Amino acid sequence: MPDAPAPDDLGTDAAGGVPIDLRDRLLAVAADTAARPLLVALDFDGTLAPLQDDPAASRILPAGVEVLASLAGLDGVALALVSGRAMGDLHTLAEVPPGTYLIGSHGVERARVTLFGLDRDVVELAHTEADLLAVLGARAAAVARGRDGVWVETKPTAVVVHTRLAEPQDAEPAEAEAVALGTELGVGTLHGKDVVELTVLRADKGTALQALRHELGAPVVLYAGDDVTDEHAFAALDPQDVTVKVGGGPTVARHRVADPAAGVAALAVLRDALERASRA
């Protein structure tokens, strides 16, 4: 399947830069009662929340908060966020309504938002995995040491080398060393935008997303993401599903929007069409 059009090649309508082909597909899904329950699953950073140099500053666009709340309130719609972030960070930053599924750490962690917090699946490591995680942390810290702007995040099952704040002369060798470390230790390695994640439990967004869709019995999934790690989800989904790349770069997604604002506008198109269908 050819890549989705590049941002400069998108034929858009007046509805916030939503490409015409995507708009037509969303309208068709909304009109198809056999597509229920519809699973709307979305990456967080770079998809709903514009990328920030400081990850703690990421927030969903205000229009996105509103449209997610209204989508979650519709019958026959399930909402999920699928992120590389650790579950704790994702829950803290994501302004999503109760009932939303949260998939963190690229599929390792899963929870559902409730009125009282999180109904969370417990992730337990074997002793050998915990020991390996400790080694990863120490070795990743050595990769970052002495390189301005390179820092290490520790997750329940992984360590992450971040380079977004680093200059290329520090970022490029740090990422290369982190990838080599993953190969040396035989752990799962995910190389995304300005980040390398090394995990002792192998998982990917595609596997996690398909597991959720089968659990819910969702005949159609809409998934939108911006990073190379989202390509796992695009590739894993089925021909009837709606896959949306946010921003530039090669992709196997069937549709593309230019930026998070256009992605939120596309969600508003879907929401409005679903509301009209429910009144018909």
UniProtKB/TrEMBL annotation:
| Cofactor(s) essential for the protein | Mg(2+)
Identify the InterPro entries for this entry. HAD-like_sf, HAD-SF_hydro_IIB, HAD_sf, OTSB-like, Trehalose_PPase
Write out the catalysed reaction.
Answer: alpha,alpha-trehalose 6-phosphate + H2O = alpha,alpha-trehalose + phosphate
The chain's coiled-coil residues are: none
EC code: 3.1.3.12
Task: Show the GO MF annotations.
Answer: trehalose-phosphatase activity
Pfam families reported in the protein's UniProt record: Trehalose_PPase
Keyword Transmembrane listed: no
Class of this enzyme: hydrolase
* Keywords tagged on the record: Hydrolase, Magnesium, Metal-binding
Q: Which pathway does the UniProt entry assign to this protein? A: Glycan biosynthesis; trehalose biosynthesis
SUPFAM superfamilies (alphabetical) = HAD-like (SSF56784)
Alphabetized PANTHER family for the sequence: TREHALOSE 6-PHOSPHATE PHOSPHATASE
Function in brief: Removes the phosphate from trehalose 6-phosphate to produce free trehalose.
Q: Which family does it belong to?
A: Belongs to the trehalose phosphatase family.
Protein name (Swiss-Prot/TrEMBL): Trehalose 6-phosphate phosphatase
